[in-house]
Amino acid sequence: VHFKLTVECFNVLFTFVFAVEAAVKLLGLGPTEYFRATLNIFDFVIVCASVAELSGTFETLACYASPLQQSWKDETVRLSTMVPDSLMSEATIAALTIPKAIYNDADPPTLVTNPMRYYACGSGGFMSVMRAFRLVRLIKFLRGFPEIHKQVKILCDVIKSVTPLFVLISILLLIFTVLGMNLFGGGLMAEWDEEALMKGAEVFVVVPGDLNGELPRHGKIQVVDMDGSPQQPFRVELDFGVAYPEIVNKSVGGRLDELGMVWANTHETRVTGVPYISGITPRFHFDNLVQAFITCFQVMTMANWNDDLYDAYAGTGIGSGVASFFYFALLIIIGNWMLFNLFVAILLQKFFEQKAQADQQNFEEMKNRVVRELGSLSEEELCSACDDLFVLMDNNSSGGVDVYELEEGLERYWQISFSNETLIAQFRKYDSDGSGYISFEEFRSFTKELLQTATQQQSANEETAPKPNDLLLAAETLLETHGSSASIEAGELLRHEGAANQTNDESVTKLSLGCLGLGHPLRVMASRIVNSRVFEDTVFVCILVSTTALAVDNNFIGRDSPLFNVLMYADIVINIVFTLELLLKVVHLGAKVYFKSGWNKMDIIIVVTSDLEMILSRIVKGGVEFLKLFRIFRALRPLRIVAARLPGLSVLVRTAEISVEPLANTMVLVMAAGLLLGLFMMQLMGGSMNYC
User: Fold this and answer.
1) Which of 174, 315, 327, 468 is an S-S bond match for 472, by CB 3.0 to 4.6 Å?
2) Rg of the chain (C-alpha set)
3) Are strands 276-280 and 261-266 parallel, antiparallel or unpaired?
4) 519-549 pLDDT, tens digit each
């Protein structure tokens, strides 16, 4: 207790010190100069959070320092826990409620403070977690360690370089999340285990006479009462039962209680007309967006992914089991084998590039030092200087310099260091006899060659000074002749070369749809709309809304619920927008040019199937539900827009495309080998394997 009290006092002290530091810097540098540094902004946020949580800190101090009171023997306090109340039984909640004071075992018993009470004092409130960010201040100590500071800087540069890959992986996760929700939403069931039916367990409940066709409804067990209600011991909160009790209660025949829940038993002890639990939701499933995203990430990292595959195969049946196999195979191949390995490759490449760049800079610095210190010497003076330097590097006076002495000498006398690979390569280059030592003659040859190369490079740099090109001369002449009024023409002239070489990715045909020329008013209007930034932003917003709607939609939403109506009308509006986008692009580019792009081919498949699903689902009841699967390809559209705004992502997408063909060939070989081995084992072990 005293230790915790001391820690909280130090927290108040340090908060005051850091607040004074921020105030002094802010007054001394001024707001503009102070907030120019990123680290100052971070410090200011931490200080503000620390000051904001002082009230909670003082409450914690008061809790620890409060003396014993006689009234505490009748007062209780609830111990805090990270587990929500919905997952705890009433007995557990009662066990977490303790008296503030208890009687000890002395004779006579004496009232003392309950030691468990201090666990309920807290630690300063929710914002106390911001204290952990104070550790970032340790970065300031790196200024005293240049080499470590350099490595941290390299690491930051590497992280920046993989940002587009993070975006690509996130988009891929979103695509497979939406795909998994449409394929497996509400269909995954874990192996039946009655012991798993406890408070907080997610289950499927079948309500006899349910207007949804007696399909299983997803819910969560809130109460288990085996003694009071043996026939219906499980009180289950159905999805949307609390949010829309009237709609759900009407569908389930008025079986919801006053809290929007239903009492049920299990399918093993089912009674006619009584709701029963038909299955248990596995830990990882695709019933909602958050859990589906976590499941996709788990499969991508290949952590127990086979358990998820078994659940998907068992829950969706034999026909959908094939889709389950291809879904998990694609997620592992694209997500893990391609993108994760590409992530590692980029990290290694950037580290190698940074190391090579550092070696090149050190090599140039060494050349400059050689020219500066030895460039003005005569031949005789150069030999004498090489002799002196050789003697200094030859620490053991062996008459030769080994690789370790060369490394130490470069760092000691010229403050230059190379990576091990570069140093060994240079050493072997001048160790002509392969003895493992550089003799004086070899060292002098090394120094002279280095001096000659550096001198020639310096002379070449002076001779190749930048000269104004013809366009710049023309622009300057135009400005001098016509004055400032010609600045626009000069700017256009300077940009002429780049503009002449610039070509659009999508050229246009002279006749669109066989009758609309380049000057036709309808085609001109379509071109203006397609090329406008407002149109691009509108399509981008529709893509986000479409993806969000696909992520929110699931099999447990009732057709009479307001959410279902919102998603339905949003689907109609989005389909209309995407259809107009397709028509405008066809009019603008022409059908022949439009179909040359792979993205446009994908768009027309999505639009046509979405429109068919939207129309047929309102004409024919059922039978076209499979067309909804085509809507998941809308999640691919952000790739095109993000790739246009992030050039690095475009490179990654092209890299992934290039790797598809060799990877497909490898996949064919793997599947062929698996097929052959499967047939072989069927003949060898078919019908003979059992378990005990």
Assistant:
1) 468
2) 37
3) parallel
4) 778 888 888 888 888 888 888 888 888 878 8
